[in-house]
Design a protein that fits this description.
The protein is of the alpha+beta class. The protein has three helices and four strands, in the order H-H-E-E-E-E-H. It has a four-stranded antiparallel sheet with strand order 1-2-3-4. The protein is elongated and about 80 Å long.
């Protein structure tokens, strides 16, 4: 008799845990879907990326040609890449109406040149 009571209690507990888990998963999916939809509708335009990059590098001693800038749109976010001596480097990410650039943008744009100079000196 005690075994049946323990089994019944275990089944009730499993049922309650399953219902709670099901509710949590449903709300998590709703939140993730809302984030994806808002990301889709607020993804920055290519012109926003270019304008923001020009403003960012304006204070740096680095020059970037317009042809070297490439923006890849992934629909819910976008990536700004700059081609430096044949190698594309990611310098920024755009999402939710804003474009963020990495703090080491100057290093990302100059790193290749420093390595080339060191190689030439040897």
């Amino acid at each position: 008799m005690e075994t049946l009571i323990v089994i019944a209690i275990a089944l009730v507990i499993l049922y309650v845990v399953f219902r709670i888990f099901k509710t949590i998963i449903k709300w998590v999916l709703i939140v993730v879907l809302a984030i994806i939809v808002s990301g889709f509708f607020t993804n920055p335009k290519e012109s926003d990326h270019r304008k923001s990059l020009k403003e960012t590098i304006q204070n740096l001693p680095v020059k970037v040609r317009e042809k070297a800038i490439k923006i890849e749109d992934y629909k819910i976010f976008s990536v700004t890449k700059v081609k430096v001596q044949g190698e594309e480097k990611i310098v920024g990410i755009g999402a939710f109406g804003t474009v963020w650039y990495f703090n080491d943008i100057e290093g990302r744009l100059k790193k290749k040149r420093l390595k080339d100079k060191e190689a030439q000196e040897k």
